[in-house]
Amino acid sequence: MLRYIVQRLLLMIPTLLGVAILVFLMLRLMGGDPVEVMLRGEGANVPQEIIEAERVRLGLDKPIVVQFGRWLGGMLTGDFGVSMWTGNPVSHEIASRLQLSIQVAVMATILAVLLAIPLGTLSALYKDTWIDHLIRVVSIAGLGIPSFWLGMIIILLLLSYFHWHPPLTFTPLLENPRENLLQLIWPALAVGYRYSSVATRMMRSTLLEVLQEDYIRTARAKGVYERLVVTRHALSNAMLPVVTVVGLEFAFLIGGLVVTEQVFNLNGIGKLFVQAVARSDFTMVQSLVLLVAVFFIVVNFVIDMLYAWLDPRIRYR
Amino acid sequence: MNPSQSNPQDEPLPLGALAQAAHAAPAMTLPGAIQVDYRIPKRRHPLVAFMRQQPLGTAGLLIILLMVLAAIFAPWVAPYDPLDVDYAGLLAPPSPEHLLGTDNFGRDVLSRIIFGSQTALAVGFLSSLIGSTIGAVIGVASAYFGGITDLIIQRLMDIILAFPIIVLALAVVAVLGKNVIFGIDWNLIMAIGLPMIPKVARVVRSSALSIREMPYIDAARTAGFSHVRIIFRHIVPNVVAPYLIMLTAFVGQAILLEASLSFLGLGVTEPTAAWGLMLSGSAIDFYEQAPWMIVFPGVAISLAVFAFNLFGDSLRDWLDPRIKI
Amino acid sequence: MKLRHAALAVAVASLASASPAWAETPKSGGTLTFAVSAEPPNFDCHAQSSFAFIHPVRPHYSTLLKFDTANYPKIVGDLAESWTVSPDGLVFTFKLRQNVKFHDGSAFSSADIKATYDRLRNPPQGVRSLRVESYADIESIDTPDAQTVVFKLSKPNASMLANFASPWDCVYSAAKLKEDPKFPERHILGTGPFTFVEHQAGSHWLGKKFDGYFEKGKPYLDGYRAVFMGGAPMVNALAAGQVLAEFRGHSPADRDRLVKALGDKAVVLESPWVCSLVVSFNTSKKPFDDARVRRALSLAVDRWTGAQALQKIALVRHVGGVLRPGYELATPEEELVKLPGFSRDIKAAREEARKLLKEAGAENLTFKLTNRNVAMPYTPVGVFLIDQWRQIGLNVQHEQLETRLYLAAQQRGNPTYDAALDFNCDFMDEPNLQLMKYISADRSALNYSGHTDRKLDELYDKQSGELDKAKRAALVREFERHLLEEAYVIPTIWWHRIVVLHKQLKGWNITPSHYVGQDLTDVWLDE
Q: H or E segment at C77?
């Protein structure tokens, strides 16, 4: 087991490095000059010398390898660099917005799980009946509806019928739970619906597979009471892949909040990302993407560990 | 989806179809004779069998066919030219002349939705096809050659997988810009197809791995058969099922991703007719006056993705329910 | 004084803005919440050019002069109590107010003015000033005593007095600038009506009433909260009454939506806008190096009908040339229709366009119109232009790019675009500002078409030093005609500003510029 853990840990390093390089290159290739955007974006009359001076100040005139080295070196010591747009430390900018994004992601997850477990179970137990068909239709529909469209419709309905708009600025949960929840429940719903669909389908398919196992069939042959007990066992066995999917979707979600935050005007890292890309704020985009990628890789790793611990076959590949 | 990339599953060959067909066939009897159950499977056409057993999937398939026909025959089916600006008839509500109303430029919404299906299907199909095929090739190569090749390829896949989908798509679009040939933006297609590659590679790899472990592969190698021949004769048939399933599943995802990118302004641009584009900006501004601008394109997207998912789901149930995607 | 006349009386007689007569007595108290659709990167006025900066930050600072928004374009003193201009227009003497304090309690004096303007026209190493060009004609700044400041120009400049009313000329503390010339980038210390409380990046900006403000009894508000939001979410918040205004401008669709949602609580203010959309041609690329092709493309556009149609869905409305229609020095309509591209007889114009294209051998021209990725008003006007060019048989592709890519395509020295839709916005009506876009590439950083035309340069310099209004107008008209014939950069349609306020918000007047009048000194809430 230990060997497996170490092996997987070691494999993480080239992956992380690869991500860092890819992100960096991607941005530099992306074209666009943060200085031009900042100074000329609004049509100001800026002489070329000022633009050049800014570029030197931001270190954009050095060769790419040097810039990369500086950035990577900084990252390893915990210095994420400074935003090219505002000049404030990147870690600062991200930290102030992270709480909101994480909260929406957590709320969406809770919603998804609350819906997925009962619905998925019902769908599996009553396979091919109208209950199953209905739940499948609902969850497949959830996969299809663009969450940004759903978000737009939610807000517009709130406005048209209740003449009410969610609070504009973020208040932390502990400060004022009412304001906080009133603002964040709607994006959580818009995102959570899709999320719950994925989880429901996963629940259904794994439960179906578990229900075909021998020990279930034996239990069935033995009688109803056994069946109830066994169903509970079946459920707990089926939960593992579901938990896995939920964990992974959560990691995906952090990156996927980009569009939702635009629609609901939430001051989270999704919105920060879109703005940073628009402004060609290289340092910000690099750090954000790396952050999300690292998060995803770590979650992946944890899940792999969980799987290996529970299923010994995997360790001895 | 099975998240663990290192879990060699014992995947049986997809004989499910035939076996199921066999069970569905009634026992044959001759009048007055001894009841002998010959159980010769009645040769039903797989399509018919599918339609019988998977009603939901069939519904999905029909919707898809409808869309494809609309896309192909768009110039004949659509009542107006989607680019026809009509400043006199702006924001007209649905009427006999304009069944779904007009938008803020006076363009017919129905025509734009019909032509939009061209963009959606072209982008959806092509990106899914390219992404899945490349992914399948990588997966098979990775599984077959094993060793260092496998390790490196898996790391590359991990790297791509680590990026949030929209970031990846955004990045590709941003780096490559637009590249329109024959009216299709190939860079957009690559941007949408790229995130699919590692996922398909993973699933295909586990299918291929299970075959590779089998002794007759080694036997074939010893007999001197070339790699290519072994791959095509033995491994590929085994991965066709998961490949097809992922292919159909990803078309839906591709359509959604294209809609999101167009919404963010990075996909197709005005005045092209594309569903995601129809939802951005003006549609929201004009919500009160012209709700049809926002409702119908959204419905179109949802319906399309819904249909593909239904079909893909049923395909998986039918071919092999054990495949976890 | 001729100069005073010229500067003060650049009156827009037809400025039919619905300026409500605030005959009521202002009430003190309350916090104003308004929306700003973009955010400034740092706090230094001198280095900014976006309204995103002005709206949240301007209330913290004062300027030497400012515009009287109820009587635009009248100029009144802000920090200056009175001023005189010498007959030859070369010496400006300002008498400053007394008892003005900075937010930290320190006293204000003429030294602060001198330090501010020295920074503007001659920024030290590492400091950015975007106004160097505007103040190039200042030769020296003297401060004979703490209440007097004297500007000496090297040559007459018709725009100079109005320049001092620029909202970008925030007056900084000389002492702080001496300590650290980059102080204003991260710190706010001004003499304005509101002190800085908080800026939460991405979220909001807070300001509080300054009790030591030099205008007694003002500001009326206790404070303000600028929330950073744009697009649909912003309109939603306005409709719900959670923000009381957005001071830039709305599209006609948003206006209608807001009026419907707010009912009688909505106040709609409209005014022509000192903003226009222009089409730039890349003169370094064939066939746009041929004036015939460029002129043909300009002739094909039916600006009059377009403006009529577009005003329903976009924030453009007025047809004008290089200066805003309605501005005193702008070409009146009778004259405008005689200029190439502005004729009402579009059939004849299009025929001529086709003829010119044929002559130039560019009949079946196919090219790309590069446009910004912004919905209002770029998208509709882009779509409109492409449609117009379709009418003369040309196939034009619409390429909408994000700002950074858009700027990259226009990069000076290596532009890759064919034709680009660009904007030309300024903080006031002033030929020196508006014409800057059209002069030669080596003179103007705003020249993206790459052309060099000494005649235009010459006319520009002449009108800049011409203090007589009529003569100046004639020079500008000559400039305009020549420009439209060469058509390097062609004006299309001018914008129309629509602001919807909640009726609680009083004391704010609309002007043709969204950069002006945002100090919030006279604004009050009627709750």
A: strand C75-77
